[in-house]
Structure formats: structure tokens, C-alpha cells
Write a structure and sequence with these properties.
This protein is an alpha/beta fold. It is 28% helix and 23% strand. The chain has twelve helices and 21 strands. Strands 4, 14, 15, 16, 17, 18, 19, 20 and 21 form a nine-stranded mixed β-sheet that branches. Strand 20 and strand 21 form a beta hairpin. The longest helix has 21 residues. It is globular. The N terminus is likely disordered.
């Protein structure tokens, strides 16, 4: 199907079922609009990936707008009485900010940069939550100036700093990020619910309770609730239920000690997606039911009013909506190993190097009847660790010029991208109903040269 370029205002409304409950074999980790074509190509959102590669160059990130919107709706349906806040760190651009706003979600940002992009796009600041374990003075001043809805306090030093710059006659709503002492997450580097990492304030050593007391003593700060984020890439519901139980216990102690029933409880995000067939993902409906039941039962036992819940999905909204397309530059056989080198790598996707994440790349753009061979897909960068997919099956006739598509690429790729080797970051192209348009253009050599102002 041919590619057209139109403005965002001309896009048709997106309707359709949610992203769950389908069985398409290897395509179970692709956007639900993905379709294999008879010529060996794959289309996403009605757009040929091979045509997208030819038109926009490679590497190119293809983002299925309908998939993002459907996943927002899945969360809104599962949590009808909660605030669903999209975690912008997964991937943020102006279009994504518009999509999640259209679908009734708030936004979670971690810097003045993310905040400014959202607000200048027209996102309501009162629906934005500001996070960060080490917020800079600029971050806090920008949040106050733009009227952010809630700031999540992550350290005791932040309390005095924030109180000192809050304008007279105003009160900034804040939450305390609590460490509930729960280990969960797909990798040690993304487990944030225990005391041995940089985020939050511990229940165990009393620092969370101390922060609550200090905030309640500040006339310019309004403590509205507790926050926790126990980790990322979590497929099990049980850790969230345990976190709710411990936070309700803390809410009861705050009520008993200070006579205050806090009205909000934010349980963060971190919900898992499948990167390869057979991997587990979070069942959002089950999560919502179990969390709500635990919250209501726990509050009833403690004699507390049920606080308003907030959840912060990021990866689970945008991750499965993205596909990245690379072009093969070289195929090298060294002993028993076959290396397939592509024109991207760790500069546009550092996650395999950081966390050992495994993907399921696919040959697109031509048919192949060759028997599969185990290969390692590597990037173009000057690092031995620049590996995109280790020991994956691809047709044995893969050759330079071929296209490889990697699904589940919408989250933490470009948001973590770097300028290593001055390669330039790839573009992001939105697809919907057979139409493609550039959301974020390719970073050019001229872009990078302009930043270098030395002699």
C-alpha cells in the first residue's frame, strides 16, 4: 500500500478493539495491525515497511497510532475510577502527547525538558506529574511556573528546596515516593522497590514517615498522597498487591499520627510487555481488579476512606506500537558464528547492552525459502557490546541490502538514544489507515555540527 503524507488534523478517528486476546504466531509481539504480505513484506497500520524504509531511509522507527490509542483505552477501561498517567520517559514527542491527552490520560515527566515539550504542545499542566530522584532547581522552578498538578518528592532535601521557591500565597500539591521493600522487575537495574537503590524514601528506616512530617509542617506544600514505583517489566500482579498493602498500612499510621487521611495513592507503572513470542506480559484487567480489591479491603480494615488511585503505564502503552526497520550492511561468518550487521545499533537502542534485552527481528521486503540459521544481529558502532539480537533465527540467505524489522520497539529506544559515533538519531514515522507521516525527523550531520561551537 502506498504511503501518503497528511497533517495530523486530517487523520481519521481511530476505533477498534484493545490490544489483548489475539493469536498471530510470531506476530503476537507486533502491533495488532501488522500483516504479512505475499511478497515477504510486512505492513503496519496499512503501510508497507519496505516502502517506509525506501521513503524515509533506515534506520526508521514506525509507530502505530491506533495501537497507542487502543492501549490508552485499555487502561482507561480497566481503571475507570483512577487517574491513568502516561510515563513520558518511555517515549515522548508532540504527537504522542496529543494522543494520550485525546484518550483521557495524564502525563508523568522527569525533567523541565519533558515538561516544556508537553505544555507547549498544549497538554494541561494540572494533569502532569513531575518525577525525579534528583530534580534540579530548574526542574522545580519550571514545574511551579507552569502549574504542574503534582510533584513527587524523592528526598528530604527536596522538601526544603521546593518549599523555599514556592510563591507566597500558593500551595503546591506533592506526594512522597515511598520504598515499600518489594523486589520486582525484569532486571536488577530496573528494580526500584527495595532499599538498595537511589529512588524514594524507605518505610523500613522511617525516612518516609519523617518526610511526611516535614511536608505537613510546610505551609506552602500540600501533601496529597503517597507514591511508589517498584520496578519495570513486571508481569506478575502479586508485587503490586503487596505494595498496596504496605502503603495502606503507612496511610493508616499517618492518620493515627497526624490526623490526616491522604486522598491519593499512586502505584506507578512498570507493566511488562512481550518482546519475543512466548514471553509474559501484564494482564491489565487482572491487575486492576486485584489492586482495587486490595485497596478497598485494606482501607476498610484500617477504617480509612479509599484514596483515589493513580497508575503510570509507559512501556505498556507505547512499546508494542513501535517497529524499527534496519538495513543490513554486512554478513560475516567467523568460525561457528554468523554476524549480521545493520545500519543502527546501540546509539538508537542501548537496551540490549544495558539490560540484556532480547528481541525477535524478522526479514521484511522480500520472500525467502532458505532454511533458518542462528545469527547475531549487531550494530555499526565501535563496541563489542553493540549487539541488537543475539542468537536469533533468520533465513540463511540474509545478505547486505536486506531489511530487518524489530517489533516491540516503541519504548526506551529513542528516548535513551545517544550521539555515539555521530551517527545521528533515526526518525519516527506514525502510521495509521495506510498513511504515514514524520513525527520526529532524522538527526542530520548539520544538526550535530551546529552544537559544536568550538574553534
Amino acid at each position: 500500500m502506498s504511503i501518503q503524507e497528511i497533517s495530523a488534523q486530517e487523520l481519521p478517528p481511530v476505533l477498534g478493539p484493545g490490544p489483548d486476546d489475539r493469536d498471530l504466531g510470531d506476530f503476537c509481539v507486533w502491533p495488532r495491525s501488522a500483516r504479512p504480505e505475499p511478497d515477504g513484506d510486512v505492513s503496519v497500520g496499512g503501510v508497507s515497511l519496505a516502502e517506509a524504509a525506501d521513503r524515509f531511509g533506515t534506520p526508521v522507527y514506525v509507530l502505530d497510532e491506533q495501537e497507542v490509542r487502543d492501549r490508552c483505552r485499555t487502561y482507561r477501561t480497566a481503571f475507570p475510577e483512577a487517574d491513568v498517567v502516561y510515563a513520558a520517559k518511555a517515549f515522548l514527542c508532540r504527537a504522542v502527547a496529543h494522543w494520550v491527552q485525546d484518550e483521557g490520560l495524564g502525563l508523568d515527566v522527569c525533567s523541565a525538558g519533558e515538561l516544556m515539550l508537553a505544555v507547549t504542545t498544549g497538554f494541561p499542566p494540572e494533569k502532569i506529574v513531575m518525577h525525579g530522584n534528583a530534580k534540579s532547581p530548574e526542574d522545580l522552578r519550571t514545574a511551579l511556573r507552569l502549574g504542574v498538578g503534582r510533584i513527587v518528592v524523592d528526598s528530604t532535601s527536596e522538601i526544603a528546596r521546593l518549599a523555599a521557591i514556592t510563591p507566597a500565597g500558593t500551595r503546591q500539591k506533592v506526594m512522597v515516593r515511598v520504598v515499600p521493600g518489594i523486589a520486582a522487575g525484569g532486571h536488577a537495574k530496573v528494580r526500584t522497590g527495595t532499599d538498595d537503590q537511589k529512588f524514594g524514601l524507605s518505610i523500613t528506616d522511617g525516612s518516609a514517615q519523617h518526610a511526611v512530617t516535614r511536608i505537613l509542617d510546610q505551609p506552602h506544600l500540600e501533601l496529597v498522597g503517597l507514591h511508589c514505583h517498584i520496578g519495570s517489566q513486571i508481569a506478575a500482579v502479586k508485587p503490586y498487591v503487596a505494595a498496596v498493602r504496605r502503603l495502606v498500612g503507612l496511610l493508616a499510621r499517618i492518620r493515627d499520627q497526624h490526623g490526616v487521611a491522604l486522598p491519593q495513592l499512586n502505584i506507578g507503572g512498570g507493566h511488562a510487555i512481550a518482546y519475543r513470542p512466548g514471553e509474559e506480559s501484564m494482564n491489565v484487567s487482572v491487575l486492576a481488579g486485584r489492586v482495587r480489591a486490595e485497596l478497598e479491603d485494606g482501607c476498610a480494615r484500617a477504617g480509612l476512606p479509599v484514596p483515589r488511585l493513580t497508575v503510570e503505564p509507559g512501556r505498556a502503552v507505547v512499546g508494542p506500537a513501535g517497529v524499527v526497520v534496519y538495513r543490513v550492511l554486512a554478513v560475516k561468518r567467523t568460525g561457528a558464528h554468523t554476524f549480521v550487521a545493520v545500519d543502527g545499533g546501540m546509539s538508537d537502542n542501548p537496551r540490549p547492552a544495558l539490560y540484556g534485552v532480547r528481541y525477535a527481528p524478522r526479514l521484511v521486503g522480500r520472500p525467502s525459502a532458505a532454511p533458518p540459521r542462528l545469527v547475531t544481529v549487531v550494530g555499526r558502532h565501535c563496541e563489542a557490546g553493540d549487539v541488537l539480537a543475539d542468537e536469533v533465527a533468520l533465513p540463511g540467505d540474509v545478505r547486505p541490502g536486506d531489511l530487518l524489522a524489530v517489533p516491540a520497539a516503541g519504548a526506551y529506544h529513542l528516548s535513551m538514544a545517544s550521539g555515539y559515533n555521530l551517527v545521528g538519531r533515526p526518525p519516527v514515522v506514525a502510521v495509521s489507515d495506510g498513511i504515514a507521516r514524520v513525527l520526529v525527523r532524522r538527526e542530520s550531520l548539520d544538526d550535530m555540527n551546529r552544537r559544536d561551537v568550538g574553534p
